[in-house]
Amino acid sequence: ITLPTAYAMARFSRTNAVKPLVIPRNRVSSVMIRVAAGQKPTSVARTIGDVVPGITAIVRPQMFAAYRAQIGGLLRGMVVVLALLLSLSLAVMVLLLSMAANERRRELGVLRALGATRGAVMFTLLAQALVLALAGGLAGVAVAAIGVGLFHTLIAAKLGFPFLFPSTGPLVAQITIGLALALTAVGLAAALPALRISGQEPAVSM
């Protein structure tokens, strides 16, 4: 871009950007150097750093390496945290759904005694768990959307790089994947107590 365009961007950033862009007049922030054929850019950068005090020379492929490393580390940390949360959530859901199934043992025993099949009992327990999972997933999506909408400026400032909302297609796909993950996790957690309770004899359940 040209220098007048940069000044115009700085002027508009006062009202349109997360943080205003400040470009001091009559100052140069960076200079691009074309290295002669046969010269190594890393050697030239090292020489510039040794000869000119207060100057940092960056080879072009390394220009965004810090941002890539920062985002990569953030993503890896998020994956680890999400995996731990999913494991803990599964354990807690198995416990809670087992307690809920035990509370309904007599009711399910009566249903079996009245002729309900084992599959029907399993379907009842799984359907209840999936309805709860869908309600919780939709509530989570709503809370996340409200939180991001209200605090996206703060999030961008804390992370140190711009925060951009995805387009409609990828956003809908992410929400769908999240809901599918919630339903799958709850279905797996509910399957164990549902199998155990539905397999009991009606007399034992009652």
Explain what the structure shows.
With 206 residues, the chain is an all-alpha fold. α3 runs parallel beside α6. It has seven helices and no strands. The model has no long low-confidence stretch (mean pLDDT 82).
Secondary-structure blueprint:
Blueprint (H helix, E strand, L loop, with lengths): L2 H14 L24 H11 L13 H39 L1 H9 L4 H42 L8 H31 L3 H4 L1
N- and C-termini, Cα separation: 78 Å
Q: Tally the helices.
A: 7
Task: Give the low-pLDDT segments.
Answer: none
Helix percentage range: over 70%
From N to C, what is the helix and strand string?
HHHHHHH
**Secondary-structure class:** mainly alpha
Indicate the mean pLDDT.
Answer: 82
